[in-house]
Amino acid sequence: MTETVEKEYALYSKAYFLMFVWLLPAILLIMSAVFFYVAVTHPGPGSPPVVVSAFPIALAAWFLWLYARMPQRIVRHADGRIEFVGPFQRLVLMPREIISIRPDRGHIGFLVLKHEAGTLRFLNQFNGFHELLSYLESVNPAVELHGC
């Protein structure tokens, strides 16, 4: 069975996505390795405790959990399905399952899509995203669009 893609929306610039998903966690893991090395090889009153290296690891894991689930592209299929594709998550929704799309509070440039099974955060930088919003509003008049 072949799938028909009616329209595909890609990020305008992948720079922010790459920064949040790969660069920041990598920097945090390198910092953690340096803290761990210094704490183990130079023990004493001036060196950081070994536990300090756990903080950047936890922060990197949080970044990965939060941002690696964000979609890099959105695919609208001919049968009406809307697919959000990211490096670690693929979410397929029917338009009737989408409740609202609104800006993320406290995070400029991010949107939150609320659907029947949960929420999805993504960057507000998709080419032609206004077309997707128009389509969504035409097939699901109950959807709430705020600040899009």
Shape: elongated
CA-to-CA gap between the ends? 35 Å
**Low-confidence runs:** none
- List the secondary-structure elements in sequence, H or E: EHHEEEEEEHE
Strand order of the largest sheet: 1-2-3-4
Tell me the domain tally: 1
Largest sheet: 4 strands, antiparallel
What do you see in this structure?
The protein has one domain. Helices cover 35% and strands 26% of the residues. The protein has helices spanning 15-41, 54-67, 129-139; strands at 5-10, 73-77, 82-85, 90-93, 98-103, 110-115, 118-123, 144-145. The strands form two sheets. A four-stranded antiparallel sheet has the order 1-2-3-4, with no helix packed on it. A four-stranded mixed sheet has the order 7-6-5-8, with no helix packed on it. Strand 6 (110-115) and strand 7 form a beta hairpin. The relative contact order is 0.17.
Structure described in brief:
The protein has 148 residues and is of the alpha+beta class. The chain contains three helices and eight strands, in the order E-H-H-E-E-E-E-E-E-H-E. It has one domain.
